Amino acid sequence: MDLASAKVIGAGLAAIGVGLAALGVGNVFGSFLSSAVRNPSAADSQQGRLFIGFAAAELLGLIAFVVAILILFVVKG
Amino acid sequence: MSQFSVNPVVGADWTLFGHNIAFTNSAAFMLVILGVLWVFMLGGMKRQLVPGRWQAAVETMTDFVANMIEANIGPKGKKFTPYVFSLFMFILCANLIGLFPLAVIPGLHAFTVTSHITVTGVLAIMSFSIVLIVGFWKHGLHFFSLFVPHGTPFILIPLIFLIELVSFLVRPFSLGLRLFVAMTAGHILLDVFASFVIQGLNSGGAIGPVVSLLSFVMIVGVSALEILVAAIQAYVFALLTSLYLNDAINLH
Question: Would an 8 Å CB–CB cutoff place A59 in contact with chain B?
Answer without folding.
Answer: yes
